[in-house]
Amino acid sequence: MSDLKPLTPLGGDIARLDQIGVLRIAENPNLAIASLAARKGRSADVAQTVKAALQIELPQPGKSRRTVTHTVWWMGPDQWMLSAEHNAHELLADEVKAIVGDAASVTEQTDAWCCFEVSAHCEHGAASSEAALFALFERLCAVDVSQMVVEDATRTSIHHTGCFLIRKEDGFCVIGPRSSAGSLHHALVEVAGGLG
Amino acid sequence: MLINHPLLGPRDASEFTYLGDASLLNRPDWQGENAVEAFHDYLYLRDNPAGLHRELWFHEQGDRSWLVVTRNTLTHEITEVVLASEVAKNTKRFEGDAQ
Amino acid sequence: MSVNRLHGGLIDHTTALSFSFDGKTYQGQAGDTLASALLANGVRLMGRSFKYHRPRGVMTAGSEEPNALVELRTGGRQEPNTRATTVELFDGLTARSQNHIGSLKHDLLAVNDLFPSFLSAGFYYKTFMWPRAFWEKLYEPAIRRAAGLGSVSFEDDPDAYDKGFLHCDLLVIGAGPAGLMAALTAGRAGARVILAEEDFLLGGRLIAETQSVGDMSGADWTAQMQAELASMDNVRIMARTTVFGAYDHGVYGAVERVSDHLAVPEAGKPRQILWRIYSKRAIVCAGALERPIAFENNDRPGVMLAGAMRTYANRWAATPAKEVVVFANSDDGHRTAKDLIAKGLTVPAVVDTRADAPDMAGTEVLKGAQIINTKGRHGVTAVTVRLANGTTREISCGAVANSGGWNPNLGLTCHQRGRPVWDEAIHAFVPGGDLPMGQSVAGAANGVMSTHGALETGTTAAIAALGDLGITATAPDLPQVEDRPANLSPFWYVSGAKRAWVDFQNDVTVKDVKLAHQEGFRSVEHLKRYTTLGMATDQGKTSNVTGLAVMAERTGKSIPETGTTIFRPPYVPVAMGTLAGRSVGKEFHPTRLTPSHHWAAEQGAEFVEVGNWLRAQYFPRKGETHWRQTVDREVLATRASVGVCDVTTLGKIDVQGVDAAEFLNKIYANGFAKLAVGKVRYGVMLREDGIAYDDGTAARLAEDHFVVTTTTANAVTVYRNMEFARQCLFPDMDVQLISTTEAWAQYAVAGPNSRKLLQKLVDPGFDISNEAFPFMGCGEITICGGLRARLFRISFSGELAYEIAVPTRYGDALMRRLMEEGEEFNVTPYGTEALGVMRIEKGHAVAAELNGTTTAANLGMGRMVSKKKDSIGSTLSERDGLNAEGDLRLVGLKPVQSGEVVAGAHLMNATGPVDAKHDQGYVTSAAYSPILETSIGLGFLKDGANRMGETLRMVNPLEGQEVLVEVVSAHFVDPEGGRLRV
Questions:
Q1: Class for domain C1-154, per CATH?
Q2: How many folded domains does chain A comprise?
Q3: C-interface mutation test, from B39, B59, B94, most C Cβ less than 10 A away
Q4: Predicted TM-score (pTM) of this structure
Q5: C88: which DSSP letter?
Q6: CATH of the domain at A138
Q7: Which one, of C556, C554, C557, C549, lies nearest residue C533 by Cα?
Q8: What ipTM is given for this predicted complex?
Q9: CATH of C601-649+743-838, one of 3.40.50.10090, 3.30.1360.120, 1.10.1200.10, 3.30.830.10
Q10: Which residues in chain A (6-25) have CB-CB distances under 8 A to chain C?
Q11: How far is A104 from chain C (nearest CA, A)?
């Protein structure tokens, strides 16, 4: 591979990690992303080939799915985002295109985005950890976060920045535009610091 | 305001961009007779009802769907929201587009 | 103990708090408000009135307070017009009275009070008619100084403000008896409930009155309710939270004062939070607001609303004075007297307007009597009472408890144009039927003026609201409450009074209302605007209905016939900082950084905001003292050898699908269907009205795959319009769109040595020679040992040039590598300024030329608009009006001898008048060309294509500029384009 040295979205050599109270905000640069849009009338084909190749079902609106290697979330009608670890799948778009062939349009999206994994680890237990996460996100976006269940995924606006918000077992994944990573990170950290 | 997105449920109107009258779906035939007049009317002549109004909204901070929203301009009550692409598919279009 | 501190109440008598008012230090107790602490300390005078600078004291015990407005805190935290009645006392609090010159007691502007007729209703309209010049010089500054309220410090607010979003089944607004029962009913039914209370304690009137609930005090019963509600996961109790607005579809705005009760917010925590609450149903349980009776000099400090007097005595163990005369038109007077006496105060008399008022123990009830005047310089010392028999009696006292009845607090019911209706039974307006969607009203806010009624309607309203949502709720057992009707007999103002205040905040008297009537301003809306009744921070909460009653009496109509005023948001003032939230300073909007940003910052680049992007504007070097030196150097170096510019900000849209080419044929005015794979074409996009709105290139990477570039500014608009075309106009086409702007770091590498530089990076196996990779070619390659990249041979500068794109994470490294490898070519980074100079030299249009009024024809690209196909805007671009003889054409301009071309200047013929009628066109862009060593410009000129070589006058009458310019080709540099193709 190339000898050009990559930077993380926040401009660092290594990922940024912030621990604020019980909240942990971790920049995740190890993410390859590809968009997948079914060609006219080919949704079923796409769903079938992706399922066969990756053992993952293309989710319905507002939902995501994950396997050990891949995550996929609904982005728009007949359109999804697929992600995998960058270390192992840097050419994810090519891999996906090889799977779906002419049934779908595939576009590399890897570096269009930054990703922050937000989790909470409260010594008072899972409920308190959840409460801290909800308290954070209810000050960041209009989504009814406390009603999101694992695998829910939605697009929302966080401090004027359009983001995907995915509910995971241990927290939320925020995927926002890479060029605004600094502003988005600032919003997450500042608001997290104001909770209590 | 809240717009009840047909796929995503109620979403804040701030996620959307407003365009205007849904009659913009009925783009005329460029090869029709009096095409210039037809396009002029299409672009510039709009009803401005005090009451139910079908209008186009774009879910810019969401799934990027264009929607046709039926809204009462007097009360802001929204009575119907459908995907504009569905409406467009069912709109009788001029021949040139059928291919 | 402070002079007017009583026993009991809900304050902590053991925790003293020190605070200062107008520089003097006092002691209050935990649980006090600033108002209650000042009263307890014997301070009645708290401010000066708006217009007449009359001495004023506290009148209410809540957010409806018109008088006791103070400047709270100092420095960046200074907050003007803060109601002392809602300020929770904290240790170290500092407050100052406002709206006076000199001391509060000796306000120089009190002279205004000597000339009330001069400042009467309509004062502004009558006085400031002429002379016009006086407006800015005299009237404005003088009025601002004299009639203003508080002042600001002009320092930055050091505190943070958050915004947030909440969702619930039921929003209960107000935690008095109705609200508590509504929340309890809904909470027990399992609904998601938010209970919002403006006060820092729940309970409403329950904690202000002595009435018991069941076998408990109101406060104890409230505490029990609160404990149960707090134990429910589905109920969120929000104290210190004012719901200030009811918006469409069940959306409410609320401000939570998180840290206002602290001297300084805890580290990192916000001062306030602006909440947007999405509710499926809402119940307004906002209670009622007492209204005063208007009588002569009823504004002296010490004259207070009776309910407020009880609140201060019962809850805060404070009183304005030891001797209090009660003035009332209902049994509320008796209740007040009873409570005050129980607190050890003296009530010399209850002045009751009703001839049949009942007697009571402990004081004399003066039946059918009225207070006709008050005395005292800075506070009441005595009242004059006219007895039923016509004789007068002077009674000395330090305060008056004034009650004219209660108005339902229905502001939030009006925010969607709901109109209140008159309820003859309670002599007050109650909410009409046209409430905001999903809203209902319970308790006193709905005109139910008893505690039992409040408890009951809170429950029934909750059951009904939840029923709409399919949630079954059952009524909790209601506690026993002994209610007696107040037996109110309407009485609005004491007749014969000259200066009886109706609106205390705006200094509107009964006489002013009558004057408005006399001068024909009789509709409620006119009355409000003519007299300013009901304006300013309190929005007429204590005055609107009384003003209406006076007007009704004048017109001889009933109050409902006279009209009603409705309310708009916000219910209470909301600070600008709260509305701004965290979007302040550098965080005013999100900032987008380019992939080379960190590197550019290391080079000392100057940055410029382009939308939300920060782009390198130029890269100054040591010894360069003026930006022009830098820009000239960057241009010359690029044209001489090679320069590199970050062009990532240009919008990139990935267009794929079987019909992708056909789709682009619709989007662009020129044809794209026949573009070969591996080629790039310049395209122009029109609006449907035929005006050009964006331009850029589209590269065909495969039969079914294009990458479209847009201008930086229009990236979002173009994408939106393309989605509109895809979904709404051509839904049968197979085409898929997605933005890839940020996925790729894209750099322009321009100049005669650009290829040589790139060849050092491109991996072996990729031939980018002129033959293999000609002008307007594109392809997917690898560089630097295997990194995927896209190469486009396109040029904005007019030089041999490429744009190279790599995944954004490698953008920083690629820029550094280009600089290292380019050292032998003296590679020069350039910014947006040099980019702009070179594009003007080459005659390329940008937003200044695509300015929303110009067609492709104006731009000299009329022939690009294909008539063989349909595209957005193609039909209307053929309109006669856009294709007249002698229309504007893009031309180049340069001074004939000396002078500068200036963007925005207009073009006139060499001789003849200089006016709009003889206008020949205008200049859109201008720059100094270091290559041509002259100022140059682009502009639109009538019939420009046929006027090459002509001399015109470029005029800028605003600054007296006039320069002779020559019309030349817009392509100043290499007009044949030979450099592009070598």
A1: alpha beta
A2: 2
A3: B39
A4: 0.95
A5: B
A6: 3.30.1360.120
A7: C549
A8: 0.98
A9: 3.30.1360.120
A10: 6-9, 11
A11: 8
